[in-house]
Amino acid sequence: MKHSSSYDNANWDNVKAFLALYRAKDYEAAAESLGVDGSTLRRKIQSLEVVLGYSLFVKENNRWTLTPGTEIILDAALNMEMSTRLFFGMTPRDKGGVVKISLPFALINQFSDVLIQFRNVYPEFTFNISSDARFVDLEREGFDFAIRLARPVSNMNSLKIKKLGTFGLGVFGSKSYLNEMIKKYGKESILGKSELIETGINFSHKSHEFIFSSLNWEQLGFLGEVKIVCDDLESCASFCMKGAGLAILPKFLAHRYSELSCVYDASNTLMAELWLVSRLDMRSEWQVVLGDMLSLKSKELEIY
């Protein structure tokens, strides 16, 4: 029986061409990375567009970018690439080695499975992970990658940066704390009398747009007093969960604590960004794969 579905007409080489152009933003560079000429790459992209029924790229500022609305195709292509590597047990052309990563403690739970999955594909690599909350100096301290809850804006020198995703914030309190406040002072006391837990920034962050350094309780309508200051979000969440007061937390982090209840969803006004910073050139196969795996995982943070 003859089939005419897009699935039956799928071609993995065309998907690889799609990913190459997405990463390079340039036909010539993408073709070179695949070892083909520019016209061959264009035919592969056009063939894929015919199967799907729509254009995949638009040219902006002399760079080829994804057509709006095709992000789901990118996710599917990246998953296909990862599944292919796992299926064939592909290992890197590099000899492996130690990869040093700065990963805030609040993100360990989100990204540990990504690092484990990466090692299933690239077993020759070893991860050396620091969960320090501060922004490490990659070049001076020898870190290969850093995942940061802030947007780099200056003094990046030769470092490569890649936006991984965005996430919403909210004001949270433990159910027991909120019930006690309401019982003692009434519902209105949550805004005016609550004890507050704050994220203290005790390290240099001038080269980043770090939203946690500019949060203002009064602008959110809360007039209580700050009683606890922590230098990392996980500690803030822990104190909050144990009834010490209200805390401004990433929604994905608060979601892990079943005792926490959202008092105010600030997602409409407070969105933070997650960035990958690297002192490597991000061109080697394993570096590209790791970056894409982190990007895919980051999208899960946006659903909370």
Automatic annotation (TrEMBL):
The domain of life is: Bacteria
Q: Which GO terms describe its biological process?
A: DNA-templated transcription
One GO term in the molecular function aspect is: sequence-specific DNA binding
UniProt xrefs under PROSITE patterns: HTH_LYSR
| Residues covered by the HTH lysR-type domain | 16-67
| Keywords noted in UniProt | DNA-binding, Transcription, Transcription regulation
Q: What is this protein called?
A: LysR family transcriptional regulator
Which organism is this protein's natural source?
Answer: Pseudomonas lactis
